[in-house]
Amino acid sequence: MSWKTFIEKQKTAATIFTHALRKNELSHAYILEGPKGTGKREMAKLLAQTLFCENRKGIEPCHECRNCRRIASGNHPDIVWVKKEEDATLIKKEQITYLTREFAYRSVESQIKLFIIEDADLMSTQAANSLLKFIEEPHQNTVALLLTEHIHQLLDTIISRCQVLTFSALSRKDLEDKLIEQGISKPLAALSSQLTNRYDEAISYCKDEWFANARLLVIQLEQKLFNSTQAGLSTMYELFAPHFKDQKQWDIALDLLLFWYRDMMSIHLDRLSEVVYCDKLDELKSQTLQKSLQHIADDMAYILKAKRQLLSHVNGLSVMEELIVKLQGEA
Questions:
Q1: CB atoms within 10 A of CB 215
Q2: Do residues 105 and 141 lie in contact, with contact meaning Cβ atoms separated by under 8 Å?
Q3: Digit-coded pLDDT (tens) for 187-231
Q4: Are 45 and 72 spatial neighbours (Cβ–Cβ below 8 Å)?
Q5: How far is it, in rounded angstroms, from Cα 72 to Cα 60?
Q6: What is the spatial distance between Cα 46 and Cα 67, in angstroms, rounded to a whole number?
Q7: Please, which residues bridge with residue 55 across strands?
Q8: Model confidence over 152-161: pLDDT tens digits?
Q9: Does this UniProt record's set of keywords contain Transferase (predicted)?
């Protein structure tokens, strides 16, 4: 990861840091806040490598020198990472006490010391108060980074003494790429990133067998619908009904259906890069040949109407029955 990359992904936070680095005017404490998966930890690590790199080019660290490699592995003596212990529910006062004691000493190898607290909102009241005292009287040449997804759970007095950098939710493309980096298949990554822009929620979808099966059922339903209404209804009764059990699940089913028809529209408009069901491209192309753009738009309108009916607490099975008939043009 580089500052150039972060300027594209998290422009505000990256711009503030790069400007401060060029001017040599870093604040003594920052709060990096935003949803999970938005790059807070990666930016904290990049800042650390920038500050300690032995072969820095401008503000970009080399990622190859001894210091960069030690930071990447979490072993630099002038950087202290604090996070909740594995079996604990909170960050303890003793952990903050250790941190403040470490920073009372001179840096071991460098002119600066850096501490990073992950999930800072999980500090106990005693830990937060200890940190507040430390931040109120910062040591020279020290920088603090507090990472959090829930800034409202931090003490107001801590927030007021830090510069707050807000990380925005990932774009759909960035979220999809991040999921693929974590070993998620492209079809599941593409689909889940359409349902949410939160990394934690998307990764939860991808690791849920129910979601993978829901995707397969929607594809199977479309295959049946392409042949006949009766086959579609049969699939819905035999397979859909047992799998989709509440309003939220039926709503996801409708979203997955909507994405299928949106893919057909993308193919009509020659926007293949926007296709979500990327592993079913040939099948989508075949169906698209038999539907006009207006027909697809009408089908999407039917699905959106079905979603509104669900919000009005109409039974999910009844909504799907009506929708399947409409998608076949028999209503």
A1: 20
A2: no
A3: 999 999 999 988 889 999 999 999 999 999 999 988 888 766 567
A4: yes
A5: 15
A6: 12
A7: none
A8: 999 999 999 9
A9: yes
